[in-house]
Predict the structure of DNA-directed RNA polymerase subunit omega.
Amino acid sequence: MKLKSKSNGVAKNQVVEKSEKKPLPSNISASLITRDMREITQKTGNVYESVYIIAQRAKQIAAKTKEELTAKLNDFSSPIDNLEEVFENREQIEISKFYEKMPKPTTIATEEFLEDKLAWKYPEEIEN
């Protein structure tokens, strides 16, 4: 499966979540789960294609999560920090711990894929 990206011409999936502006699910377990590969393969007919779609969505989730975390942590930084001024901020630690406990992007993307919450297009569909 090859999908075109307008940014650099490299073949990429254009994976989008079907529902807009949905918060990250809290009902997804943060622990690893053994998956039935037949179930993953069933949606596309090709295990590699399915894994590629899941990986592209996981990258999107990771980027969004990183932006949110960076924005929240930037509230605590000041432009004139030096060693004497750096101290432990309880709120900052709590925010970091919250993001550490969240399910991994790959787990979220896999759940979205298996629950038919993702849509993807092939290059032929993009050009038309």
About this structure: The longest helix spans residues 47-74. The radius of gyration is 19 Å. DSSP finds five helices and two strands in the chain.
